[in-house]
Amino acid sequence: MSLAPRAVLVHRTTEYEELTARHGTHGQAAFFLSSRGRDIEEVAERHRRTRRALAEVTAAIPLTWRQTRVERADLDRFLFAPEDVVVVVGQDGLVANVAKYLTGQPVVGIDTDPGRNPGVLVRHRPRDAASLLPCVLTAGVGTDELTMVEAVADDTQRLLALNEIYLGAAGHQTARYRLGLDDDGGAVEAQASSGVLVGTGTGATGWLRSVWQERGGAGNDGRPRLPGPTEDRLVWFVREAWPSPATGTSLVAGELAAGGRLTLTVESERLIAFGDGIESDALELTWGQRVRVGVCGERLRLAG
Q1: In 10 A of CB 69, how many CB atoms?
Q2: Would you state the pLDDT for residue 187?
Q3: 276 and 161 Cβ atoms separated by less than 8 Å
């Protein structure tokens, strides 16, 4: 007997909840904000909108489905099942936070604060949940297959991300390593930089785009064109590469096709690799270790 679908509502602690947890009461939190020229009502109203959205989405879950909730801080300890439908209620970044823990489960992004969130990944309103949830289990209907990026170390550590993976020193100090491309005849370059960023078309709306724009965009000195969210292509940038007698700057940007890999060999005491801005969930890399980064075989199935 097959299990009934399970709706997994993913949310995060609101700013208001964080403030009241830190200061003890609403009044104390209000006093803290007022001393800094802020009104707690703005934060409280966003909290109320989030709670209303969660209640509306919960009420829209079909009666025959099972359901549960998971807070963002608990994602690395939550076991997703094949029959799950993941409903992200919050900001775009919350979809990226959950993506690396999934194995093909459909995701529905619900925007709790339209106009404040870009809505790139949380594409729907709470009122849409009632009609959307029953349809999302139909194979091939209404979902986009978003490309992800992966980093695999030579000790089998593996990291997935929806937006981008950063490789460098903790704290973004100078990182030392050797960088090479699989399709470049085995040539490598010793570098000292602020780290390497490898990202997808989804990430091209955030951190990756800011680096790309600083480099002048596409068509300038061979700089790569940013990919679309569903393209099997990544772009990569070296941040602030430093030229010296021992380090070069000839490999600072490029593209990776579906089968291509960027290889980084560590020449520092400790480097890290983390995805989608979550430094607390990072690969630890030490002297001589090698990590390869490229297009991930898994995709994020996001309701369109």
Answers
A1: 15
A2: 75
A3: yes
